[in-house]
């Protein structure tokens, strides 16, 4: 029994040492090596099992005409991207958004936790992807690249609890900060001005980051769903749904550095 | 343990890991199914607390650095070794229902501990709705997976004896 407890104490101490190591010095290089090694398996699993998952998901919407129509529209959007990608050759830039070329990419890894919102894409530094690049779904910005390996990148979605994005109300120009709440929850948005003019259905667009790599200004980000009637000193709070779907994301576009490709 | 038994152990862990990390997301199953923690609980229950803690530590370590994991290195290992130690002491043979419930509670507690430790250490805060949904998925998934995997204990015991 004493030996058993000693072993447990050693393992707990080793775990705590690893936690301290990760807090004090990033383990990004170790994670990059693992991500690069695992990418072929992720690609294979996605290719084999995603059609099965999509087929199963389509059964639920088979008898619902509205859901079927929405699904069809989404598929058409996806097909357009796929078609363009096929014409240009895999990995080629396909369009220009705000003066920046876009790189089509496919989601090959999704978060293992229901509380975090990160995805892995099948494009990386070898394709020109850099940390800070914005990632777009058909209807708006869904996240930014936070980690890059040679053949893949990890994207923190705007719904992740650790995500905070500068935003602006498109109609009134009011400045806000949109914070993720995890999973498929709405964004918690705080407008700087407690008396800001904001209504339900207002469109929020990106505030924009300086430099050639970050998120450009004016891209659709979220739509206001609920306005808190209380005007707090710290700013006015509203809830907003991302305009681009973050829960069914499959094909996306990465906005590359200005002037690249 | 002989090389053959280590190979069986590695194979079981690899299959569980592939299901959690690659197959379940590709099939569109809800994120947060604690497949690997359930595998640790079942293996530890077969191997006992000592070996269970070591297996839990190693499996947790792999989960920490798995692609897509944003967890701090060591947090999953800590949750895994504690789960392995506790699950190794649960007596499932005497009362299957009570054993199943105890393993469920230990697995859900380990998953909750890992999330809470990571949230506190790295400073992210989930909202109540997401937390409730994750707890529901995690608990229901753990219960179902354990119900399927616990009957495999005799076969695992033969292979790993």
Write up this protein.
The complex is a heterodimer of chains A (261) and B (161). Chain A has helices at 2-24, 28-61, 65-88; strands at 96-97, 100-109, 118-121, 134-137, 140-148, 153-157, 164-169, 175-179, 187-191, 203-206, 220-232, 235-242, 251-255. Chain A has 261 residues and is an alpha+beta fold. The longest helix of chain A is centred in the first third of the chain and has 34 residues, at 28-61. The model of chain A is unreliable at 85-94 (pLDDT under 50). Chain B is mainly alpha-helical. In chain B, 78% of the residues lie in helices and 0% in strands. Chain B has helices at residues 3-27, 35-47, 49-65, 75-87, 96-122, 128-149, 153-160. Chain B is globular, with a radius of gyration of 15 Å. Classes of the chains: A alpha+beta (261), B mainly alpha (161). The interface between A and B is large, with 57 and 54 residues.
List keywords for this structure.
heterodimer; A: 261 residues; alpha+beta; B: 161 residues; mainly alpha; 78% helix
Spatial strand arrangement across the major sheet of chain A? 2-3-6-5-4-13
Q: Briefly note the structural class of the backbone of chain B.
A: mainly alpha
Q: Name the poorly predicted regions of chain B.
A: none
Q: Please estimate the helix content of chain A.
A: 25-40%
Helix/strand class of chain A:
alpha+beta
Count of helical stretches of chain A: 3
- Major sheet size, sense and barrel closure of chain B: none
Largest sheet of chain A: 6 strands, antiparallel, barrel
What is the overall shape of chain A? Answer: globular
Number of helices of chain B: 7
> What percent of the residues of chain B sit in helical stretches (DSSP H or I)?
over 70%
**Most extensive interface, chain pair and sizes:** A-B, 57 and 54 residues
Mean pLDDT of chain B: 88
């Amino acid at each position: 029994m004493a030996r058993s407890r000693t072993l447990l104490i050693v393992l707990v101490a080793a775990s705590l040492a690893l936690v301290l190591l990760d807090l004090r010095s990033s383990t990004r290089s170790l994670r990059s090596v693992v991500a690069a090694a695992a990418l072929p398996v992720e690609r294979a699993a996605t290719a084999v099992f995603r059609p099965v998952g999509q087929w199963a998901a389509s059964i639920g919407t088979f008898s619902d005409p509205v859901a079927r129509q929405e699904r069809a529209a989404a598929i058409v959007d996806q097909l357009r991207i796929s078609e363009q990608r096929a014409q240009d050759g895999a990995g080629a830039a396909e369009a220009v958004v705000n003066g920046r070329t876009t790189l089509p990419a496919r989601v090959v890894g999704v978060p293992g936790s229901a509380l975090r919102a990160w995805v892995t894409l099948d494009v990386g530094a070898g394709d020109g992807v850099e940390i800070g690049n914005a990632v777009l779904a058909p209807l708006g910005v869904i996240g930014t690249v936070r980690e890059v390996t040679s053949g893949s990148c990890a994207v923190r979605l705007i719904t992740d609890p650790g995500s905070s994005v500068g935003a602006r109300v498109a109609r009134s120009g009011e400045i806000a900060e949109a914070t993720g709440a995890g999973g498929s929850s709405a964004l918690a948005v705080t407008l700087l001005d407690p008396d800001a003019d904001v209504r339900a259905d207002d469109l929020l667009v990106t505030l924009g980051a300086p430099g050639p790599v970050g998120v450009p200004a004016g891209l659709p980000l979220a739509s206001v769903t609920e306005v808190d009637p209380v005007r707090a000193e710290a700013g006015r709070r509203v809830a907003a749904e991302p305009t681009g779907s973050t829960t069914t994301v499959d094909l996306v576009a990465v906005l590359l550095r200005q002037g690249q490709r | 343990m002989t090389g053959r038994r280590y190979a069986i152990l590695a194979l079981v862990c690899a299959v569980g890991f592939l299901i959690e990390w690659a197959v379940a997301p590709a099939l569109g199953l809800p994120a947060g199914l604690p497949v690997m923690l359930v595998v640790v609980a079942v293996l530890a229950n077969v191997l006992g607390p000592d070996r269970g803690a070591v297996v839990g530590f190693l499996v947790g370590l792999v989960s920490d650095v798995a692609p897509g994991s944003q967890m701090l290195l060591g947090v999953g290992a800590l949750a895994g070794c504690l789960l392995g130690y506790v699950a190794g002491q649960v007596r499932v043979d005497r009362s299957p229902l009570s054993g199943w419930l105890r393993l469920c509670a230990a697995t859900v507690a380990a998953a909750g501990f890992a999330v809470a430790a990571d949230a506190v250490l790295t400073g992210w805060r989930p909202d109540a709705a997401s937390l409730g949904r994750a707890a529901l998925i995690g608990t229901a998934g753990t219960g179902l997976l354990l119900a399927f995997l616990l009957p495999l204990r005799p076969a695992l015991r033969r292979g790993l004896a």
